[in-house]
Every structure is written in C-alpha cells, then in structure tokens.
Specification:
- With 280 residues, the protein is an alpha+beta fold.
- The chain has 2 domains: 103 residues; 157 residues, Thrombin, subunit H (Beta Barrel).
- The chain has 4 helices and 13 strands.
- A 7-stranded antiparallel beta sheet has the order 1-13-4-5-6-3-2. Strands 7-8-9-12-11-10 form a 6-stranded antiparallel beta barrel.
- A hairpin with a 5-residue loop joins β8 and β9.
- The radius of gyration is 49 Å and the shape is elongated.
- The N terminus and C terminus are likely disordered.
C-alpha cells in the first residue's frame, strides 16, 4: 500500500525537466523582468491602440459638437441681423415713398394753388357694396369741415360728406352720388363736363358737346365750375369715348388717377386760397 502511494506521488520526468528549465532561464537569462515586460507589452499593444483610438474619436466628436453649437449661435445672430436690416430697408423704402409723395404734392400745390395740406389716415371703409365712402382720422378738431377735398399726390379722391370731432366720412368720387366739374387738359381742347361715379366702378364724364374731339389717354382735371373742389387737381385719364350721332352730347369713361382700393398718404385741403381770401 505504501509502495502504491509513493508511486502515485512521484513527479513525472518531463515535469521535472520543465521546472529545471524555467529555473535555469530565470537564473542565467539577463534582465528577466524586462523580457517579461516586453512580452506583456507586445500582447497588450493592440488593445492599448484600440482604446487610444476610441478615446481620440470621442474627443473629435466632442470638438465637432462644440463647433456645431458655436455655428448655431452664430447663425441665430446672423438671422437677427438680417431681420433687423430687412426692417431697416422697409423703413427706408417707406421714407422714400413719403418723400416722393411730398415732392409731388409740392409740385401739385405749385400747379393748382392748393391750400394747406393736412395729413390723414384711412381708418374704415363703408361696409355697403353700393356706397363708396371711407372714414379718415381727422375731424373738426383738426380744422376739417363738410365739403373739403381729400387728395393724394396723384389726384383728387373725394369730398368730406360729414365731419365729426375726431373723424370724418369722405364720399369718394367713384360713388354713384358723387358729382364734380371737370376739364379736359389738352392743347386741342379745354372742354368741361360733369364727372360722376359709376356703379360699375370708375368715372363717367358727361355733357361734352359732340363737336369736341376727345382722345383716349388725355388727362382730366378738376374745373372751377360749381366751386365744389379746387381747380387743377388731377382726376384721371380717358380710357374710352362714347359718341352717338343722335344725341347732343358725348361721354368719356375715365380711370381715376388715385387707386381707390389702395388709398394711403391722404391729405385734406383744409384752407383753399379762394375760400381763405373770401373770408377776409
């Protein structure tokens, strides 16, 4: 039994030789620790390289995200600046239009001897489709009274039908109940007639003698006859001449100079020279 136990505990010869070889390597080989370190480095180098590359990619991604955030903030600033410049351009364009209107109004006053001009703003339109009238933000407290003329730099718009303390109702010249005296501004003819509004839109000049020659494109201005509006204000242009041989008079369709659908920069003639001189 003891012999069998000794036989089982005896180390095999190859194991003994392996142990002796390792001892000899550690004793006789120089710098064994450095050798072991080199082997470990070679084994771990691929893993270290992979981890280092992953860290570099993460750092690059963080840098890209930071730059994207900076670009987004810059874009927001640029958008705000563009919006501000666009608003400034719109404001300058409005100032240019206003200056142009004022220059044209100055020329209008020189040509027609128009009175003092009171700026007014359109605040409402008559809701009835059969009435062409507007309401402006000027009234008796501003010196506006019934019968005064409303104009743009392009020409006459209408007459004050009812003046209130702070606002006034203006009947447009295109209303069917409107009637003013007009004159053909032409080197060939200075004929006058009555200008009325049409239900269909536009203006109709009536009571023009048949022997007068009218041409499309001629300008029609206000006349002093009737005294309802100052003389020399532009009314519009002739777009069609209607003539019948059996009738005494001919008619002319007129396109208003002022666009009644887009009225802005309105002015009330609050003190025409004739009225002011007559009051003295």
């Amino acid at each position: 039994m003891h012999a069998a136990t000794r036989s089982r505990r005896r180390m095999p010869r190859w194991a003994v030789l392996l142990v002796l070889g390792l001892v000899a390597a550690l004793v006789f080989v120089r710098e064994p620790a450095r050798r072991v370190e080199s082997i470990g480095t070679q084994l771990l180098e691929p893993v270290q390289f992979g981890v280092s590359g992953l860290v570099d990619q993460v750092e690059d991604l963080a840098t890209v995200l930071q730059k994207l955030g900076e670009l987004a903030r810059q874009n927001d600033q640029y958008r705000e600046e563009v919006d501000r410049l666009q608003a400034e351009v719109v404001r300058l364009q409005e100032l240019e239009l206003e200056n142009r209107d004022l220059r044209n109004l100055l020329g209008l006053r020189e040509r027609s001897a128009a009175g003092d001009l009171l700026p007014a703003r359109l605040i409402a339109r008559d809701p009835s489709p059969y009435v062409r009238a507007i309401t402006i933000d000027r009234g008796t407290e501003d010196g506006v009274h019934d019968g005064m003329t409303l104009i743009t730099w392009r020409g006459v718009v209408g007459r004050v039908a009812r003046a209130g303390p702070t606002s006034s109702k203006v009947l447009l010249i295109t209303d069917a109940n409107s009637s003013i005296s007009g004159r053909i501004q032409s080197s060939d003819s200075r004929v006058t007639g009555i200008i009325r509004g049409r239900v269909e839109g536009g203006l109709l000049m009536q009571h023009i003698p048949q022997d007068e020659t009218l041409k499309t494109g001629e300008t029609v201005i206000t006349s002093e006859l009737g005294g309802l509006v100052p003389e020399g204000l532009v009314v519009g242009q002739i777009v069609q001449v209607r003539r019948k041989d059996v009738e005494v008079f001919q008619e002319a369709l007129i396109e208003p100079a002022s666009d009644m659908k887009r009225l802005e920069r309105l002015y009330v003639l609050v003190a025409p020279p004739l009225v002011r001189d007559g009051a003295r």
